[in-house]
Amino acid sequence: MSRSLAPLLALTALALAACGAPAAPAAPAAPAGKPAAVHAAAGVTPGSHEDWCGEHEVPESLCTRCNPALTAAFQATGDWCAEHGLPESQCRTCDASRVFVRPPKAAP
Whole-angstrom Cα distance, residue 62 to residue 53? Predict the structure, then answer.
């Protein structure tokens, strides 16, 4: 996990605990011939393999496109790209080299 992502995970965990944020919404139906987008189930550990938004390729616990309630926390820390409406740390339009790697599955 990137060093810049760790503080955001901690901030998000605190924000979710404080406001009792709702579970991630269900994935919308996929168009015919395309697989459905994969979203994390409710209650997964932030930063884990299961905490992944397959639609936007970022941790589900940090996905402002799936959970707009997270926006205020990113804006409060100055991590916001107003031009593109998502966290600057996730804005691939501003920096195409940004890549998020899904953490590996935990060993059984």
Answer: 9
Q: What is the pTM of this model?
A: 0.64
Specify whether the CB–CB gap between 1 and 47 falls below 8 A: yes
Read off the DSSP letter of residue 62. G
**How many Cβ atoms from other residues are within 10 Å of residue 86's Cβ?**
22
Q: What sign results for the dihedral spanned by CA atoms 20, 106, 4, 60?
A: negative
- Residue 21 and residue 69 in contact, taking contact as beta carbons nearer than 8 Å: yes
| Burial of 60 from C-beta contacts in 10 A (0-12 / 13-18 / 19+) | buried
| pLDDT of the chain, 108 residues: tens digit per residue | 444 555 555 555 544 444 444 444 444 444 455 455 588 888 889 999 999 999 999 999 999 999 999 999 999 999 999 999 999 999 999 999 999 999 999 888
Report the distance separating Cα 104 and Cα 50, nearest Å: 9
